[in-house]
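Translate structure to sequence.
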């Protein structure tokens, strides 16, 4: 009801209008007909739509109207009059009790949302806006807006091998996905610094998820899996390497044009890698100054319009008068998806944009030291 009254504030006055309408109807109909039950209903409704004080005063007004109507027809001190007055009084008490219960529920929900929001920020903190000369922007919207916890994950890490990016989609939503998200991001942040190849990094992530699933076998399902995309940008900003494990492909934005970077040999999601005889291979793409990389989850690519058609990020309209910033790209994308889906959101939507403004980038001459620890 809070959403209803926030959208249409005038609806709060509906109970008063209902009482007035009932009084007029009672006055215009024969004595044998009574509209008092409608007054009682308005008192209960006041407890839902109004503040506690307003609902209480509305109840006093309703009881006064009932007394006047009973006095008008001469039943104020009769049995029928007492029944009507007691009915309205009970309706006032019920309305106030309903209001108190709704307020208590709202307080509990607000506390739960606060905890969920803090948990989401702890598990999936916002990435830094700059990593070296690169600019970064991230956006996360859970399908369950009230729970504020979803099943998408992303992370970006500066390593000796380049700037590495992870974006994934855990099967499932809500609190059940938090453990897997924590494991995935923690494993990425550690292994990204100690594995020279993206294939080995993906294997490390898969092993971590398998151990987590084994430890929580009493609550997990055998078919649990996570789609993931691992990217690596060299420190010179000239090369992008991608390893796709069943995740939506990223997009390259160059001079306002959006191009999908499809994998030549896509792999299966993490948790299903043993179903293929050969692991997925890495794809390499050249980069130029002012390129923007856009990483998304299937909440973007599987957004549907009224006819059931999927949204295509390559149709994203960006300003062509100057290079867009990562934040502008994500804002434009979010608006486009919202308009396409008519405001509906059936899946989590995580987006990450990285601007490759390589002017003034420091060079690195130190050879990275490999370690398996």
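Result:
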């Amino acid at each position: 009801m809070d959403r209803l009254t926030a959208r249409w504030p005038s609806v709060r006055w509906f109970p008063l209008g209902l009482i007035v309408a009932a009084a007029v109807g009672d006055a215009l109909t024969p004595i044998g007909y009574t509209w008092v039950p409608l007054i009682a209903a308005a008192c209960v409704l006041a407890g839902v739509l109004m503040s506690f004080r307003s609902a209480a005063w509305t109840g006093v007004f309703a009881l006064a109207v009932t007394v006047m109507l009973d006095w008008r027809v001469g039943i104020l001190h009769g049995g029928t009059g007492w029944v009507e007055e007691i009915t309205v009084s009970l309706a006032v008490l019920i309305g106030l009790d309903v209001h108190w219960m709704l307020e208590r529920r709202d307080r509990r929900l607000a506390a739960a949302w606060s905890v969920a929001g803090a948990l989401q920020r702890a598990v999936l903190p916002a990435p830094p806006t700059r990593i070296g000369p690169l600019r970064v922007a991230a956006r996360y919207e859970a399908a369950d807006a009230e729970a504020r916890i979803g099943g998408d994950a992303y992370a970006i890490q500066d390593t000796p091998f380049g700037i590495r990016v992870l974006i994934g989609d855990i099967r499932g939503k809500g609190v059940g996905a938090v453990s897997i998200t924590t494991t995935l991001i923690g494993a990425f942040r550690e292994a990204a610094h100690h594995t020279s190849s993206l294939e080995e990094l993906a294997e490390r992530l898969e092993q971590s998820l398998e151990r987590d699933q084994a430890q929580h076998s009493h609550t997990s399902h055998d078919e649990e899996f996570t789609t993931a995309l691992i990217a690596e940008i060299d420190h010179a900003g000239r090369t992008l390497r991608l390893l796709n494990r069943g995740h939506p492909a990223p997009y390259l934005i160059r001079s306002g044009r959006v191009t999908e970077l499809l994998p030549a040999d896509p792999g299966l999601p993490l948790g299903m890698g043993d179903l293929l005889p050969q692991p997925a291979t890495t794809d390499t793409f050249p980069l130029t100054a002012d390129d923007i990389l856009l990483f998304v989850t299937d909440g973007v690519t599987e957004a549907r319009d009224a006819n059931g058609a999927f949204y295509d990020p390559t149709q994203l309209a960006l300003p062509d008068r100057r290079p867009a910033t990562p934040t502008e790209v994500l804002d434009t994308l979010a608006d486009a998806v919202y308009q396409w889906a008519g405001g509906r959101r059936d899946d989590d939507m995580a987006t990450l944009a990285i601007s490759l403004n390589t002017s003034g980038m420091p060079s690195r001459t130190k050879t990275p030291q490999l370690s398996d620890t």
